[in-house]
């Protein structure tokens, strides 16, 4: 099994982070970034393995299409919805996503 929690794609510009974590990718750059990593992950994945990738609302559809291409849409397992109920009060309301997604594919 492989689990990836990559930088999320945001369809709006976010303020610069206080540490080195790029969350301001253009869509084309983010898709290439993810494609390169998912192709390597597919090679490393066991023949009967599963890959799980966390993503936010903005990138969910784009990532699913990309993973359909790399892992074959017939190998799609599920998109799990994770309801985040434990956000610190120090986060702004805009950055407190209440739902995130985990896309799962098998390798057959």
TrEMBL record:
<feature type="domain" description="DNA methylase N-4/N-6">
    <location>
        <begin position="1"/>
        <end position="108"/>
    </location>
</feature>
<dbReference type="GO" id="GO:0032259">
    <property type="term" value="P:methylation"/>
</dbReference>
<dbReference type="GO" id="GO:0008170">
    <property type="term" value="F:N-methyltransferase activity"/>
</dbReference>
<protein>
    <submittedName>
        <fullName>Putative type III restriction/modification system modification methylase</fullName>
    </submittedName>
</protein>
<keyword id="KW-0808">Transferase</keyword>
<dbReference type="InterPro" id="IPR002941">
    <property type="entry name" value="DNA_methylase_N4/N6"/>
</dbReference>
<dbReference type="InterPro" id="IPR029063">
    <property type="entry name" value="SAM-dependent_MTases_sf"/>
</dbReference>
<keyword id="KW-0489">Methyltransferase</keyword>
<dbReference type="Pfam" id="PF01555">
    <property type="entry name" value="N6_N4_Mtase"/>
</dbReference>
<dbReference type="GO" id="GO:0003677">
    <property type="term" value="F:DNA binding"/>
</dbReference>
